[in-house]
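Running this now, will post back.
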Amino acid sequence: MKYIAFTLSLLVGLAANSAAVAESVTLRSSISVQSDQITFGDIFKGVLDKADYVIAPAPAPGKSTFFKASSVAFVARKHGLKWRPNSTIRRVSVSRDGVLIPNQQLIEEIHFALEGELDAEFFEISLSSQHPNIQVALDEDPSATVESLSYSRKKGTFVAILEAPANSENARRYKLSGKIYLQQLVPVLNRSIRAGEEILETDLNFKKLKVKKISRNIAVDIQDIIGKSPRRSVRAGSPIVLSNLGDPVTVEKGKLVSVTLNEGGINLSITGRTLEAGSEGDIIRVENIASRKTVQAEVLNANEVRIFTPKRRLAALQ
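Update: finished.
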């Protein structure tokens, strides 16, 4: 811990006082100041007319400083104050009251300064130190401003020099560093969508995501989403994965449909039950409810499927 020594200049003119009868004083149990100077009255009780005598500059707001107990006793004696530290007191701590500037306010100031520098529409930042503890005096405006700024877009880092209070002749400078995270707007669902349900434009909102977290499989264009449906349910607010998208389900599993066959002059229509869901044009398995036989059929619409014959299968492959 750093000690601040009293200089000889503080003792100028004390010779006359040393000859005076010493006044007994008591060290305060908790010493805190509000101004930028430390007086005898701040440190001792019972100093009477010497209470306003300045003995040292105060620390910065929100900070503390320490004096050797022997040095405090020496200056006290030179001013006619009788105090001697006991064996348990080796140093005297003096703290200064202050008003904390919230971290979010500091982040906003740096973010605003970076907006004019970065060629990016969206980004967020974080401070390397979670508790920078920048404080101003009780009678000062709890504000800060960025004096200078440097950053690396490639590394995603910044270093900022802030002044607090902002635009003050007595401003103190603080160095803060942190990370820059570039962001991009991506479409997300504003409600949960079940598997097979068609996604409409009204189902979409936009959300900022860190660019580094957007993989090639994340949908960034709403045209890749509208009219599609998820193969697995998607929760509201979640990014949409392209590989999870398909055509909307036209017919659900277990639905009764009309099964038709029009081939070589044969026209047949029976009732079947779908054994799996499918979209228009999909080939699904359908069970004949009369014979319990299973056939492959092409989904035509929500109520009709067409038996997929070997001839038709060959034509589809060509």
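Confidence is low (pLDDT under 50) at residues 1-20. More later if anyone needs it.
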